[in-house]
């Protein structure tokens, strides 16, 4: 490449010197465009910055009329500069004025310049502005010159993203890089969280982008690529990785990308323009991300995440950084932002500091959402590309009621949400006032309202709410937050604490429900094609009876002299219940033989969450002492729609007649056998859904602590006979509708029910 000052490497070194000078932002930009123009042997160099209003403003120029700076503004759909910004792709023309997108701006004096090279200023794939060089001659810019200008644009991206230019802008015309964002997603967990961004998988911040020794940087890059390839090969060769399945497909995609010569060559070429190895990785990935963000094919968009992860792995190799967040430095009022995460990963954080959760994926009935609700963390999902639009430490507001997220919110929005938080606190005070009021409907029907729990932090809610008891204690959460398998004595201590906190109130302990998306960090994960339908819960317990026996033994000993209620999850056949019940009897015999104290009474039940049990209800209710309905799994299996898959999780409504008929079948059959049934899935935790459940016959509901007040307030105002009469016609063969949701909402509004 031709260059008056010695080429791109010299330019980058000069830029580094300018970046370090104690000058104003405008002076810094003015010096930068002069350097670029001289290095590119160009008569013009201009920097356009994308503003919050979606327009592009000329911020600095060498060669055009200086009076046009901060005066020339164009739309993103206007001119060649707008095209570069919109498409996030370079444009190189030897006769720009002949191009149909050319837009003449007389105040700039650019009519005498014919050749044009514009490149997007990108960061994390997002366009922050456009860098342009122009010449009078009809000149064709070489690939090396385009590459060099893109590298230079990367340096400018850091200046814009830093917020340094904000002070130069008029109100309402600030650079878009730090603009407030108002995003709409899917509400997952109610509540309002105000705090600052913590990236669950932090981007590696590249602090040194300009190379001192190019051969050394190429060697570092090649070495990191070799190490990355070897690590992927090792993972694929691991006997614990299934021969088929989603996990292996991802690793195979990683291996394909890691061996792609085009990807490697682009990074090597970026190094040759003067970048460090990590600077080259970041630049190539930002360019690739920008292109893929503009694709409509969902498969190709999904591959973007694979490339993001692969680039981050490579950056960790180069910088020596380990994966994962620095949990020890979690700030107060943290808002966790992630593409997705497991329930165990969320539980690994200091929960007292988390105020919200924002996910690019996420589903309303996923296990992660359930844990977030249990912890009282407001959460919003389906926030596309949110990880690429935030920086660690950004102010953010998460509205888990409306599904809105405000990033870098203006003061008036913060004040409005501060008022919302105060209003919500007053509403919670009203719910607290209902603590000692019996849960009896308006017509005098008593409803048992229990809590779902799973951690010691949940136990104070029993007293705070005045709950009837704990309708579901998820024992697996203790295992998920532990660094090693909890010993019997550790389990015993937890279960005894739960029973002590409940006092005379009943507690239903669910035996380990692990597998699927609930993976224990210290156990080798078994890769399965469909983990939700695979080796999990009671299936795992019966195949590994030592695991189930040790837990049952701890539960029996913890309940010495008290009543113990046990429930088995994911039972799909009565025979499985019989085998599990036999283990309980064996453990009781073992305790008697060795002189241990025994529970006063042991009640054993089953979770109704596999549709096959709907056709075994007579056999089942003749055996069990009680049952609980796990509506989350039952409904997902009824509709064959994975509740953790955002593409299909919302394709059905649990208030559809089909789902309500299945639930009514259970409660009617239980009544025939005189067996108590509690619905403990998330369905009971929403007032409108709880209304439907009460209307079809459920008199025992178990809800999340945050939902206890709203559900109780609704039930106290409910005329149950009127609700039953309203719902029944829709459950008949001639009452088919897609969902009862709109009809129930209208009924509730007319009846004045608080929802």
UniProtKB/TrEMBL annotation:
<dbReference type="Pfam" id="PF01590">
    <property type="entry name" value="GAF"/>
</dbReference>
<dbReference type="InterPro" id="IPR008279">
    <property type="entry name" value="PEP-util_enz_mobile_dom"/>
</dbReference>
<dbReference type="InterPro" id="IPR008731">
    <property type="entry name" value="PTS_EIN"/>
</dbReference>
<feature type="domain" description="GAF">
    <location>
        <begin position="24"/>
        <end position="170"/>
    </location>
</feature>
<keyword id="KW-0808">Transferase</keyword>
<dbReference type="Pfam" id="PF05524">
    <property type="entry name" value="PEP-utilisers_N"/>
</dbReference>
<dbReference type="GO" id="GO:0016301">
    <property type="term" value="F:kinase activity"/>
</dbReference>
<keyword id="KW-0418">Kinase</keyword>
<dbReference type="GO" id="GO:0009401">
    <property type="term" value="P:phosphoenolpyruvate-dependent sugar phosphotransferase system"/>
</dbReference>
<keyword id="KW-0813">Transport</keyword>
<dbReference type="Pfam" id="PF02896">
    <property type="entry name" value="PEP-utilizers_C"/>
</dbReference>
<keyword id="KW-0963">Cytoplasm</keyword>
<dbReference type="GO" id="GO:0008965">
    <property type="term" value="F:phosphoenolpyruvate-protein phosphotransferase activity"/>
</dbReference>
<dbReference type="InterPro" id="IPR003018">
    <property type="entry name" value="GAF"/>
</dbReference>
<dbReference type="InterPro" id="IPR040442">
    <property type="entry name" value="Pyrv_kinase-like_dom_sf"/>
</dbReference>
<keyword id="KW-0479">Metal-binding</keyword>
<dbReference type="InterPro" id="IPR006318">
    <property type="entry name" value="PTS_EI-like"/>
</dbReference>
<keyword id="KW-0460">Magnesium</keyword>
<dbReference type="GO" id="GO:0005737">
    <property type="term" value="C:cytoplasm"/>
</dbReference>
<dbReference type="InterPro" id="IPR015813">
    <property type="entry name" value="Pyrv/PenolPyrv_kinase-like_dom"/>
</dbReference>
<protein>
    <recommendedName>
        <fullName>phosphoenolpyruvate--protein phosphotransferase</fullName>
        <ecNumber>2.7.3.9</ecNumber>
    </recommendedName>
</protein>
<dbReference type="Pfam" id="PF00391">
    <property type="entry name" value="PEP-utilizers"/>
</dbReference>
<keyword id="KW-0598">Phosphotransferase system</keyword>
<keyword id="KW-0762">Sugar transport</keyword>
<dbReference type="InterPro" id="IPR036618">
    <property type="entry name" value="PtsI_HPr-bd_sf"/>
</dbReference>
<dbReference type="InterPro" id="IPR000121">
    <property type="entry name" value="PEP_util_C"/>
</dbReference>
<dbReference type="InterPro" id="IPR036637">
    <property type="entry name" value="Phosphohistidine_dom_sf"/>
</dbReference>
<dbReference type="GO" id="GO:0046872">
    <property type="term" value="F:metal ion binding"/>
</dbReference>
<comment type="similarity">
    <text>Belongs to the PEP-utilizing enzyme family.</text>
</comment>
<dbReference type="InterPro" id="IPR029016">
    <property type="entry name" value="GAF-like_dom_sf"/>
</dbReference>
<dbReference type="InterPro" id="IPR050499">
    <property type="entry name" value="PEP-utilizing_PTS_enzyme"/>
</dbReference>
């Amino acid at each position: 490449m031709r260059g008056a000052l010695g080429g791109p490497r010299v330019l980058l070194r000069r830029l580094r010197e300018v970046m370090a000078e104690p000058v104003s932002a405008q002076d810094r930009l003015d010096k930068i465009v002069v350097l670029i123009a001289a290095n590119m042997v160009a008569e013009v160099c201009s920097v356009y910055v994308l503003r919050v209003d979606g327009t592009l403003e000329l911020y600095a120029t060498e060669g055009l009329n200086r009076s046009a700076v901060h005066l020339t503004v164009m739309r993103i759909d206007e001119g060649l500069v707008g095209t570069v910004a919109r498409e996030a792709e370079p444009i190189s023309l030897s006769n720009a004025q002949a191009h149909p997108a050319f837009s003449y701006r007389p105040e700039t004096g650019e009519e005498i310049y014919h050749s044009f090279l514009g490149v997007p200023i990108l960061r994390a794939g997002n366009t922050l502005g456009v860098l342009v060089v122009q010449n009078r001659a009809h000149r064709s810019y070489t690939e090396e010159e385009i590459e060099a200008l893109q590298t230079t644009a990367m340096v400018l991206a850091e200046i814009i993203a830093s917020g340094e230019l904000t002070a130069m802008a008029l109100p309402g015309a600030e650079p878009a890089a730090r603009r407030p964002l108002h995003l709409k997603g899917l509400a997952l967990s109610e509540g309002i969280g105000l705090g600052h961004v913590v990236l669950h998988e932090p981007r590696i911040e590249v602090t040194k982008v300009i190379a001192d020794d190019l051969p050394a940087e190429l060697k570092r890059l090649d070495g990191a690529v070799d190490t990355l390839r070897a690590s992927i090969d090792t993972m694929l060769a691991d006997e614990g990785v299934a021969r088929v399945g989603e996990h292996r497909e991802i690793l195979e995609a990683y291996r394909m990308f890691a061996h792609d010569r085009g990807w490697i060559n682009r990074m090597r070429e970026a190094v040759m323009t003067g970048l460090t190895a990590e600077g080259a990785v970041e630049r190539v990935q930002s360019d690739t991300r920008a292109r893929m963000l503009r694709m409509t094919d969902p498969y190709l968009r999904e591959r973007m995440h694979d490339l993001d992860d692969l680039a981050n792995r490579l950056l960790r190799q180069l910088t020596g950084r380990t994966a994962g967040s620095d949990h020890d430095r979690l700030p107060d009022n943290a808002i966790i932002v992630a593409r997705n995460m497991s329930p165990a990963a969320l539980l690994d954080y200091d929960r007292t500091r988390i105020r919200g959760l924002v996910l690019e994926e996420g589903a309303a009935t996923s296990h992660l959402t359930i844990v977030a609700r249990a912890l009282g963390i407001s959460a919003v999902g389906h926030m596309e590309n949110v990880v690429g639009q935030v920086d660690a430490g950004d102010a953010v507001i998460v509205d888990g009621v409306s599904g809105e997220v405000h990033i870098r919110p203006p003061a008036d929005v913060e004040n409005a949400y501060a008022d919302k938080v105060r209003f919500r606190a007053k509403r919670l005070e009203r719910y607290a006032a209902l603590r000692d009021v019996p849960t009896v409907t308006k017509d005098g029907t008593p409803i048992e309202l229990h809590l779902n729990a799973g951690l010691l932090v949940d136990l104070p809610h029993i007293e705070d709410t005045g709950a009837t008891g704990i309708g579901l204690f998820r024992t697996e959460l203790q295992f998920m937050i532990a660094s090693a398998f909890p010993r019997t004595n550790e389990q015993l201590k937890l279960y005894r604490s739960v029973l002590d906190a409940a006092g005379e109130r009943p507690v239903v302990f669910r035996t380990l429900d692990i597998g699927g998306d609930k993976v224990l960090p210290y156990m080798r994960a078994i890769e399965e094609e469909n983990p939700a339908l695979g080796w999990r819960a009671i299936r795992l317990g019966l195949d590994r009876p030592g695991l189930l026996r040790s837990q049952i033994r701890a539960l029996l000993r913890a309940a010495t002299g008290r009543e113990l209620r046990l429930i088995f999850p994911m039972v799909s056949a009565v025979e499985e219940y019989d085998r599990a019940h036999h283990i309980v009897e064996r453990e009781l015999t073992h305790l008697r033989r060795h002189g241990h104290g025994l529970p006063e009474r042991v009640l054993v039940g089953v979770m109704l969450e596999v549709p096959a049990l709907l056709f075994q209800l007579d056999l089942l209710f003749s055996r069990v002492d009680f049952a609980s309905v796990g509506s989350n799994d039952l409904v997902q299996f009824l509709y064959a729609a994975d509740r953790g898959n955002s593409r299909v999780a919302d394709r059905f409504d649990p208030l559809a007649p089909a789902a309500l008929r299945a639930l009514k079948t259970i409660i009617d059959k239980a009544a025939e056998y005189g067996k108590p049934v509690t619905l403990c899935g998330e369905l009971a935790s929403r007032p409108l859904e709880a209304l439907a459940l009460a209307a079809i016959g459920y008199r025992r509901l178990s809800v999340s602590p945050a939902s206890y007040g709203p559900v109780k307030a609704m039930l106290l105002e409910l005329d149950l006979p009127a609700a039953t009469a309203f719902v029944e016609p829709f459950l008949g063969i001639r009452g088919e509708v897609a969902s009862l949701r709109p009809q129930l909402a209208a009924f509730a509004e007319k009846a004045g029910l608080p929802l």
